[in-house]
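Hi there,

I know you've been waiting on this one. I reran it after we fixed the sequence typo, so this is the corrected version. Both the input and the resulting structure follow.
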Amino acid sequence: MATAGDGGRPASAADTWSHARLIPTYGIRSQDEQEKRATACLLAVMHGVPEFGHSLLRELGAPKSPSIDTFAEVRFKKADGKLDIPDGAIVCERGSKRWTCLVEVKTGTAALKDDQVGRYVEIAREQEFDGVLTISNQITHSASESPVSINGQKLRKTKLWHLSWWRILTEAVVQSRYRGVSDPDQAWVLRELIHYLSGNSSGVAGFEDMGKDWVSVRTAAHDGILRQGDPRARQVAERWEQFTEYLCLSLSQELGRNVISLRARKQTATARLDELEKSLTTAGALQTEIHVPDAIGDLQIRADLKSRQTSISVDIMAPTEGRPKSRIGWLLRQLPETWPDLRIEVWYPYVRESTPATLEQARAKPEDLLCQADVKRDPRSFTVTLSRPMGQKRGRAEGSFVRETREQTVTFYRDLVQNMKAWQARPPQIRTEVPDVDDSDPPSPPDLLPLTPADRMLPRLTGGDASDGD
């Protein structure tokens, strides 16, 4: 017998049925089948939904062609008669320009192989392709950074690009939700791809865990016995860098904007890992900075393995008008009541240390945040920080470092950063002149008397032009 459904609508058996899917996730029996299905689905949708395909290939330098031709399991015969079979190929043509690349795909925990990708780079060079695109669950900072190591001589004329599956899923979500697809049928096809890639059986994952060395490195850093040169520290630094990119892409999915991690100008991936490894072994901490377009400030994330605390903070420029206490009040009015332990630091010019207080303390006595050396000194900037105990588990389950840090970052942005507005000076105002008004009767004009000879000489005596005389 049918029962009442949502909103009083009579329920039917169809309410419990699963929708038929264009790309089903069931029936995958092996890693090889998983890779082939994921490759075929992705390349087919890139061809069928060109707007999505172009959004993926834009960073690779592909022209915006009327259509994207895609092929699966392309075959090349080597000199010894053996075959090399890359997972796919992409061709874009616009006018006289023709852009081509080979595609190599891995799913699940499978990693790309240096020698295999190296052979495909050689094929691409021989066939005068523009390059090779690799796809796996390994997340990189940009498409130009690759998780595989290839001889630089091979890459002089042939490019090597990499896209993570999480990056591809993010592009699909952003295209579907925010940019939109002009053709309704193509929009439905793209949503079907998103549903497939989001399924556990597809082999597509975001970021699983901090790696097998996470627990031992965390313990060693906490105990102060982690040393430079320890290979475990390098592995954790690499996982942290991937986790940072995972956070950026996750926020991009939520916001529909390109959220990126910040690096020093011209810093290479290797130099970045060196910096992280040094910070981990000397200070026992990992940190990163994330830029959200048009936000009041960049998000700074710090995982302190010694204190086992994760902190998310944002720097905010102070107003340039008003008394010091009024400028502090401007900040306090924008902070939520949710976190009384939110830490506030006020920075003053020519003062090395900040003036700190919790939000609860600052609301009770805002004057405690004034400069201790000179209460009339104007604040330069504020730092607002939310600290929480670090997740201890390795994977993505509840209580894990990955899950807890992701939720803390999203919550900090959603409940605080996205609601804050930067201070803006009031535009200069045109002053309205109000003439003095005398309500009394105006004085009577003097009697007009005939000019005397002295009056006629007055212009000449006061410096007037000579022509002003008779």
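Quick highlight: DSSP finds 13 helices and 14 strands in the chain.

Best,
R. S.
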